[in-house]
Design a protein that fits this description.
heterodimer; A: 116 residues; mainly beta; six-stranded mixed sheet; four-stranded antiparallel sheet; 51% strand; globular; B: 114 residues; seven-stranded mixed sheet; 0% helix
Chain lengths: 116, 114
């Protein structure tokens, strides 16, 4: 069965600290996509990244980086030098894209609080 | 993701009333997904539609909920005879292909049932 687990419910850090949000997924498919979304206090869902199962290269975008490891079924997200504006709920999601019209399966989210 | 438009942003309904939530997908997208976010939970899939067709409604409650995506106009999620447990944020996502490899969300509609 497909499943996404974000074991960290809440994380609190002080500005400028680095923080890693964990995501572990389960799927039987060999073709799938992984996503991260940010949900700030205003409530909208902001797309951060999509990674397909054939591309294990890590990605960096500014202060954000993602570590995809198929061997451990993990897709972790690191924020370097965190800022107060990073405070939000972060969701990891899985899509088994081999099948048409497959919906996203979300983890329960990690609430990140960054204090000044 | 600013291209997916949902309205209203906030909707208050009394128990027993009907709620209609609208979603206009991004330009050129013909695939729409509805998700529900209950308090303190992640998003759960409800229904997947293409123009004039419901493809997968496995996540929809069996009663009171319905969805459509007509040839013209936005997709509509309709909840009849709302109850307090329907209070949630409802998000719509659109995709340009069948595999949902791109999933951009609207800003959501926050339904409050009083």
């Amino acid at each position: 069965a497909q499943k996404v687990t974000q074991a960290q419910t809440e994380i609190s850090v002080v500005e400028k600290e680095d923080v890693t949000l964990d995501c572990v997924y389960e799927t039987r498919d060999t073709t799938y996509y992984l996503f991260w979304y940010k949900q700030p206090p205003s409530g909208e869902l902001v797309f951060l990244i999509r990674r397909n199962s054939f591309d294990e290269q890590n990605e960096i975008s500014g202060r954000y980086s993602w570590n995809f490891q198929k061997s451990t079924s993990s897709f972790n997200f690191t924020i370097t030098a965190s800022q107060v504006v990073d405070s939000a709920v972060y969701f990891c999601a899985l899509s088994e894209a081999r099948q048409a019209g497959t919906a996203l399966i979300f983890g329960k989210g990690t609430t990140l609080s960054v204090s000044s | 993701n600013a291209g997916v438009m949902q309205n209203p942003r906030h909707l208050v309904r009394r128990r027993g009333q009907e709620a209609r939530l609208r979603c206009s997908p991004m330009k050129g997208h013909s695939h729409v997904y509805w998700y529900r976010q209950l308090p303190e939970e992640g998003l759960k899939f409800m229904v997947y539609l293409q123009k004039e067709n419901i493809i997968d409604e496995s996540g929809m409650p069996k009663e009171r909920f319905s969805a459509e995506f007509p040839k013209e106009g936005p997709s509509i999620l309709r909840i009849q005879q709302v109850v307090r447990g329907d209070s949630a944020a409802y998000f719509c996502a659109s995709s340009g292909d069948r595999r949902n490899t791109e999933a951009f969300f609207g800003q959501g509609t926050r339904l409050t049932v009083v």
